[in-house]
Amino acid sequence: MYRHSHAVFELLDIDGGHTVGPAEFQATRFLFNIKKGELSQIFKDFDISGDEQLNYKEFRMFTIFCIDRQQRKAKEKLKRQMAKAQAEDEAEDEVEDEPGEEEDEVDFTED
After folding, report:
1. Burial code of 76-91, b = ≥16 C-beta within 10 A, e = fewer?
2. pTM for this model (two decimals)
3. What is the pLDDT of residue 108?
4. CA 36: distance to chain centroid?
5. What residue stretches are annotated with the EF-hand domain (predicted)?
6. Does domain 2-69 have CATH number 1.20.210.10?
């Protein structure tokens, strides 16, 4: 996504003003899987100039943030999956190790 940030910026810049305003920024929810409630705060956080518009440099910082966020979420998800698999393996090992009913031995030798 970072490599394509300029093309994405141009697509979002609907009015051609070389900035992305709050209304145009709404489209990033779909692109970056951001909750609606977080979007306005994120916009304010990356509007370094304070002009209520994101220029390309501000938008590029935003894309880096989103990539880092997605990578962090993917790592967390992988850790949870690995922990779950390990817990399942340990539970399976415990079941195998439990003493079961021993089979009755039958003596087939003649006396």
Report:
1. eeeeeeeeeeeeeeee
2. 0.64
3. 66
4. 16
5. 34-69
6. no
Share of the chain above pLDDT 90, in %: 36
What's the CA gap between 92 and 21, in Å, rounded? 55
CB 35 within 8 A of CB 46: no
Q: Provide the sign of the torsion angle of the four alpha carbons 54, 57, 62, 66, taken in this order.
A: positive
Return d(Cα 34, Cα 22) in angstroms, integer: 14
Q: Where are the domains of the chain?
A: 2-69
